């Protein structure tokens, strides 16, 4: 049964057009269910239309139509549940459609086809005998209808606008861009078939060319990043270059070709063999090398399989379309040539998304099927504000979007003009605006100009850009640079928050439930050797000023805070004695991301200097919704009145216990979120660089005293949607509606 289901759904999903898909569906389902008739009705406007049949008269297709209040098929759609009848003709809702010639059928089983709560159509099987279909048959038809819903929806969309391909994804970084697609990396896998060749010499030459080209790319990338002073990235390329040497992996690839394997097979075989060996090793450093071997293998394979794709230096700016934009791809890509990012995988807070926001490039992630849709080099419009991707848009659409881009630019310029003015409401309430950051290069201008400092420096980003754990001195260098760029303003540095959806290629963690697993502080406390190195590096970098604040992620109990503070003390005193001088002890804080901590703020206040609310994770854990899962993305709602009440209560408790508090989740960079948070009394907000100017502009146009009434009203509402509408109306009434675009 399972195999039949899979065969039918795959065949339908792979069909070129809606008609052939539906014909295939009804004939295969009829065979699989051993019935005499299978038909599908699709909802067109208000009517269900017979769209394909194997058993009724073919000429009735497109002609038999009924409203939802007519016939048994209408009843299935109306009730949104299956109907199984031994003799349909006895049912009060039975309606005979002469043109279909269905008089001979008695047994009737039908299941609704529903996509995202909306009815698309009804799938029906019929038989001449009077018999009830079995439970198994009913389950089969329902499963089939559920599995086919998305494919049918997509095929219908394609049928409605054949030239305009339309994809939907999750917005990871706002903005709109128009450019051609550059599809990379989607097809290359490290696992390649074992192929023997006869012309060994030719294969050696091919491999040597690929190795040389790869060395050249790595060398020029090193030089480029050296000039841009991204020293953290330079070290990646230097390590890879060394590995390509004859005495190392390069030599191993060549040896394999000498034994008769094709260049592609050789690189694949060597890489897989060494990755296996290295991941088995006990020594952490050697274990980490598996990541380098994989990265290098993929680079050389790409040069062998699609050489024109390497180098990543398109002539004109492009929208990069890829499976998963890992940190290295994004860091390598020349920034002035990158105007948009589309990925098939990943979640809103995947590292690709975080990097895209840090780079200020519009990005949509989780776009299903985009790599196999043949869109390379086609013109795209990416509207990340709405998670939309349009392929080959019409001239009218292009003109419309160009207007939108100009309007957006004009707005941004208007916001930017006030960036250096303080974020102060009309009635004089000053709100501190900080920056969320992770890449050095994205920090400079904003710190100097508009922000009050760095409210969240995600140290996992520089860790992700490496091929191994950075050493203490490497970390000191990076943290020092961050503090220097901040020019005396406070910097909140968060200790490593990997795990969940933020993996390190060199430290694989396989878990059933990663968001509830080994994340953030849990991992740091289990690896004091890594944690102490990071703490020492941070303290050393901030030793001479009071800028540095250390923030602990994913804390779920007080014991974790106590343990972390003990390590902090150890690192501090060790360093003090190593350096032989008095050094400044950083302030320590924790993130409020785990709901239980909301009820322990009194105890938290006795242990730390400040807290920062991580509304991204707090929402995920309070609502039990995976923040990266597109299927439940509509349930992931920071404006859920329950969340808002928790945030209000947290603000009150922090005030009561004299515990300084900020918010650093995405909510703190969204206009609606900011209004509500400020109304609750939050006066320290940390956000992505793209939001800074806009939020500053907004705050300078609202009156703090108006907001408490708005908040009180919001808290009486029953859904996040209503809350957003309420605040939207408030913006409109003050001519601030454009701020939401
Ligand atoms: C958060 O959870 O709100 C947060 C800021 O941390 P991150 O998004 O990095 O998990
Ligand atoms: Mg978090």
Automatic annotation (TrEMBL):
Provide the GAF domain boundaries.
17-162
**GO process annotations (BP):** phosphoenolpyruvate-dependent sugar phosphotransferase system
Keywords of this entry: Cytoplasm, Kinase, Magnesium, Metal-binding, Phosphotransferase system, Pyruvate, Sugar transport, Transferase, Transport
Gene3D superfamilies associated with the record: 3.30.450.40, Phosphoenolpyruvate-binding domains, Phosphohistidine domain, PtsI, HPr-binding domain
**InterPro entries in the record, alphabetically?**
GAF (IPR003018), GAF-like_dom_sf (IPR029016), PEP-util_enz_mobile_dom (IPR008279), PEP-utilizing_PTS_enzyme (IPR050499), PEP_util_AS (IPR018274), PEP_util_C (IPR000121), Phosphohistidine_dom_sf (IPR036637), PTS_EI-like (IPR006318)
Q: Name one Pfam family in it.
A: PEP-utilisers_N
User: What EC number(s) does the entry state?
Assistant: 2.7.3.9
Belongs to which family? Belongs to the PEP-utilizing enzyme family.
Protein known as: phosphoenolpyruvate--protein phosphotransferase
**Mind giving the lineage of the organism this protein is from?**
Bacteria, Pseudomonadati, Pseudomonadota, Gammaproteobacteria, Alteromonadales
Q: Which gene encodes it?
A: ptsP
């Amino acid at each position: 049964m399972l195999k039949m289901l899979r065969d039918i759904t795959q065949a339908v999903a792979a069909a070129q057009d809606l008609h052939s898909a539906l014909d295939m569906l009804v004939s295969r389902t009829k065979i699989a269910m051993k019935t005499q008739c299978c038909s599908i009705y699709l909802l067109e406007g208000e009517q269900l239309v017979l769209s394909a049949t194997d058993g009724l008269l073919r000429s009735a297709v497109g002609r038999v139509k009924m409203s939802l209040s007519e016939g048994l098929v209408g009843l299935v759609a109306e009730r949104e549940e299956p109907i199984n009848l031994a003799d349909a003709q006895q049912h009060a809702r039975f309606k005979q459609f002469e043109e279909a010639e269905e008089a001979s059928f008695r047994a009737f089983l039908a299941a609704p086809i529903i996509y995202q709560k909306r009815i698309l159509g009804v799938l029906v099987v019929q038989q001449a005998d009077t018999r009830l279909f079995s439970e198994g048959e009913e389950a089969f038809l329902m499963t089939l209808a559920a599995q086919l819903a998305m494919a049918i929806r997509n095929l219908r969309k394609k049928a409605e606008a054949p030239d305009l391909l339309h994809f939907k994804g999750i917005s990871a970084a706002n903005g709109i861009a128009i450019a051609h697609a550059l599809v990379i990396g989607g097809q290359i896998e490290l696992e390649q078939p074992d192929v023997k060749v006869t012309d060994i010499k030719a294969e050696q030459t091919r491999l040597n060319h690929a190795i040389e080209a790869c060395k050249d790319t790595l060398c020029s990338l090193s030089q480029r990043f050296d000039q841009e002073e991204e020293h953290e990235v330079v070290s990646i390329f230097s390590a890879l270059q060394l590995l390509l040497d004859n005495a190392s992996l390069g030599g191993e690839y060549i040896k394999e070709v000498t034994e008769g394997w094709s260049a592609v097979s050789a690189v694949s075989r060597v890489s897989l063999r060494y990755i296996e060996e290295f991941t088995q090793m006990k020594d952490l450093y050697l274990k980490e090398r598996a990541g380098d071997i994989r990265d290098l293998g993929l680079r050389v394979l790409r040069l062998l399989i699609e050489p024109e794709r390497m180098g990543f230096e398109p002539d004109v700016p492009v929208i990069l379309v890829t499976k998963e934009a890992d940190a290295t791809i994004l860091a390598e890509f020349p920034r002035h040539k990158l105007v948009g990012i589309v990925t098939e995988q990943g979640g809103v807070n995947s590292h690709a998304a975080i990097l895209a926001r840090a780079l200020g490039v519009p990005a949509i992630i989780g776009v299903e099927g985009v790599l196999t849709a043949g869109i390379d080099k086609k013109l795209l419009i990416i509207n990340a504000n709405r998670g939309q991707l349009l392929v080959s848009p019409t001239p009218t659409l292009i003109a419309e979007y160009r207007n939108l881009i100009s309007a957006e630019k004009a707005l941004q310029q208007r916001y930017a003009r006030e960036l250096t003015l303080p974020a102060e409401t009309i009635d004089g309430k000053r709100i501190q605006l900080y920056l969320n950051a992770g890449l050095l290069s994205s920090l400079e201008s904003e710190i100097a100009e508009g922000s009050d400092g760095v409210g969240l420096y995600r140290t996992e980003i520089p860790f992700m850009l490496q091929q191994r754990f950075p050493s203490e001195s490497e970390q000191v260098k990076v943290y020092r640079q961050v503090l220097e760029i901040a020019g005396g303003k406070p910097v909140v540095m968060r200790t490593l928050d990997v795990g969940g959806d933020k993996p390190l290629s060199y430290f694989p963690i396989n878990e059933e439930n990663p968001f509830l697993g080994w994340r953030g502080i849990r991992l740091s406390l289990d690896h004091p050797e890594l944690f102490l190195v990071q703490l020492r590096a941070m303290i050393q970098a901030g030793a001479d000023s009071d800028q540095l604040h250390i923030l602990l992620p994913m804390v779920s109990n007080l014991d974790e805070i106590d343990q972390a503070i003990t390590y902090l003390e150890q690192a501090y005193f060790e360093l003090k004695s190593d350096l032989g001088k008095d050094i400044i002890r950083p302030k320590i804080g924790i993130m409020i991301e785990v709901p239980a901590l909301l009820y322990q703020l009194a105890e938290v206040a006795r242990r730390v200097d400040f807290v920062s609310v991580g509304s991204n994770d707090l929402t995920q854990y309070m609502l039990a919704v995976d923040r990266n899962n597109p299927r439940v993305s509509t349930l992931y709602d920071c404006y859920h009145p329950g969340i808002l009440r928790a945030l209000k209560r947290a603000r009150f408790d922090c005030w009561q216990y004299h515990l300084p508090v900020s918010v650093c989740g995405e909510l703190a960079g969204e206009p609606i979120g900011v209004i509500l948070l400020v109304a609750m009394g939050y006066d320290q907000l940390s956000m992505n660089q793209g939001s800074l100017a806009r939020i500053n502009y907004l705050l300078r146009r609202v009156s703090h005293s108006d907001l408490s009434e708005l908040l009180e009203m919001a808290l009486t509402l029953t859904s996040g949607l209503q809350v957003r509408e309420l605040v939207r109306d408030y913006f409109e009434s003050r001519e601030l509606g454009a701020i939401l675009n």
